[in-house]
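Task: encode each sequence below as C-alpha cells.

Item 1
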Amino acid sequence: MTVDGSPTVAVIGAGYEGKRHYYHRLARHGARLVIVDEPGHWSRALAAEIPGTSWVAAPVSGDADADAAAALDALDRAHVHADGVLTFYEISVRETARVAAALGLPGNPPGAVDTARSKVRTRELSTRLGLPTPKAQRVRSLDELFAAAAEMGFPAVVKPEFGAGAVGCVKVDSIESLPGVYKLVRSALTGEHEDYFRAGSDLLIEEYLDGVEFDIDLILHDGECVFSSVSQNWPTIEPSFQETGLHLPPDHNKKAVAGLVDLAVRTVQGFGFRSGVLHVEGKCTSRGPRVVEVNARMGGTRIYQMVEAVWGVDLIEAQLRSCLGLLPALQPSRKPRCAVVNAMVYAPATGRLAGLPFGRVAPEGGLGLELDVFVQLGQHVDGPESTFATELAELTLSGKDLRRARSLAAQVLREPPRIVPA
C-alpha cells in the first residue's frame, strides 16, 4: 500500500549506513524524502539514489533543543514544507519530536521521548507510575559508583544513561571489579560510538535481571496499542550483553509473554506516547515482567522485514502513516506465516580475519535469506577476551516453522570464522 499525493517527509538523522534500505522502502510507499543530517554524512548519497529525495545539512551537537532549531533552520532555508517528520535513529528521536511539535505535525510529546531516551528518567518515571522496574542510580564518578553499588548489591549492571545497541553495558559481580568496569564503560563512550553519547556521559548502575529477554514492537494510534509483535532474544554474551540473536514468533510461556506485552503497553502509555511505532525491550524474570528500556522509534536492523514476514505488517509503512496523521492500514495475520531467525557472528579470537565462510541453503517463508557482513578479510578483529568482541556478520532467514529456521541457520553458520594471529 502507498500513501496518496507524494507527501514530503522530513527524516531527521538518517543513522548508520545499514539503515539505507529503510529509505528506499519509504520512497516506494510514496513519500518524497528530505533528509536532514550533519555535514559529510553518508546519507547525502541517498539524494542521488532515490528519485525525488533531497538532502540538507544541519549541525548536530547532542543538545536536543539546539539540534532541533538547526534542523528547522535548514528546512526553512531549503524552502521545505514538510507534511510529516520521522526518524529511525535512536540518537535523533529527541530533536525529531521537537521539530514535529514546532511544525504542528503529528508526533509524540517531546517530554515522553526525552524520558524514554534517558535510562535514568525511564527508571524514575516508571517508579512514580507504580510500575515494576529495576532499582537504579545515576553515577558520575568512580566514588559514586562504589557508593551506589554498596547499596544496590550484586550482581548489577553498569551502563551509559544515553546509548544504543548495548554499547558500554557491562555486568559487575563484585566490589573489587568496579574500577575495571568503570574504566571499560568510560572507554566505550569514545571512539567509534562517540556520537551515541553527545547527549550526556553520565552512567547508571541498576540491578541485574534474570530470565529471558524479548523485543516488543508496538504500533500506537490515538494512545491505544493496535498491534504488537514479540521477538525472543537468545542469551547475551556476558559480561558485555552483546546480542547473539533472536527468533520470532517466541516459543516462551505464552502467559508470561502476554504479561510482558501488557507491561510494555502500560509503560509507554504512562510515559505519554500517543502514536507511531515503538520498540520496547523487556524480560520475563523470576519476579515477573520487567521493562529494560523504551525506544521512541522502530526496532533496528532488519526487524521490519522480520515482522512483515511473520505477521504481514509493515512497520515502516505504519510509521509513515502515523507521521502524516493517517489511520493505520493493518491486516495482521492471525497465525504466524513463517518463523524467522536472526543470528550475530562475532570474532572467536583476537587477530586478523582470514576467512568468513557461509553455507548455502534454500530458505523458506516470506523473508528469504539476508546476510550483512561488517568486516573485510585481513581486518584486525577483537575476540571475547576484550569484553566487546567484533561483530563480523548478521544472518537473517525464514523457515516454515521455528525448528526449520533454526536448522537452516545452523547450516549457513556451520563453519566458524577463521582468525590468524596478528
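Item 2
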Amino acid sequence: MAEGAPAWGRVLLKLSGEALMGSQPFGIDERVVATIADEIRDVHSLGVQVSVVVGGGNIIRGLAASHRGIDRVTGDYMGMLATVINALALQDAMEKRSVPTRVQTAIDIREVAEPFIRRRAMRHLEKNRVVVFAAGTGNPYFTTDSAAALRANEIHAEILLKATKVDGLYTADPEKDPNAVLLPEVTYQEVLEKDLKVMDTAAISLCRDNGIPIAIFNMMTPGNIRRVVCGEKVGSVVRG
C-alpha cells in the first residue's frame, strides 16, 4: 500500500451528537460541523466510500429524558428526531463543500430524507455519495452505537470508525483516573469481559460476530479520520 493511500475502501464513521455542540452546553456549533465536513471531504477525496451515523445527545437523549419524567419510549423517539436534525446539518455542510450527500432515516420522514433502504444506500456509496444514517435503528431502547454497528454490517463496511473526545480506549476513564493506560489493540472479548466503555455490548457483539474492526480515536485532533483510514496507528483498534 502506497504511503497516504487508503487502507479501507468502505467505512462507517460514528459521530456522537455531543461532538457537534463543541464548547456550547447544547445545540449545534456550525464551526465544529464545518470542521467535521472538511475531514470527511478529505477522506472522500481519496476514493473511500463514506457513511456516517450521528447521535442526538447535543439536543436530547432518550435515557436522560426518561430520568426527567418523560416516558422512555417517547424520549427515545425524541432522540431519534434529534439525530435527524444533526444529519441534515451535516448534509448541508457536506454539500456546501461539493460532496454529494444523502440522508437516510430509520423512521419515515420522506419530506426531509429518504427512508433507509439497504440496497439504495449501497448504490449511493458506489456512486461516491456520502450517506448519513439518522434516527438510530428506528426502535426505542437501542443506542446510536448499536445503529452504527448494525448499519456497518448491513452495508458491508470494512471498518467502523468511532470518533471520540479522547485518544483511544483506556483501562479506565482518563478524565477521572490519571493512571489510565491507552490500549492500542484489544479483542472484542476483552472489551466485553472488562466492560471497557467504548460502545454498548450489543454493538461490540455485532461487530465481533461479523469481524468488523472498530477504530477508536480522538476526532478533536485535525486529520485523524484520514490517518485512521490510511492505516496509521492512531488511537485504539478492537478486533478479533
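Check on item 2: The CA atoms of residues 172 and 213 lie 21 Å apart. The longest strand covers residues 10-15.
End of task.
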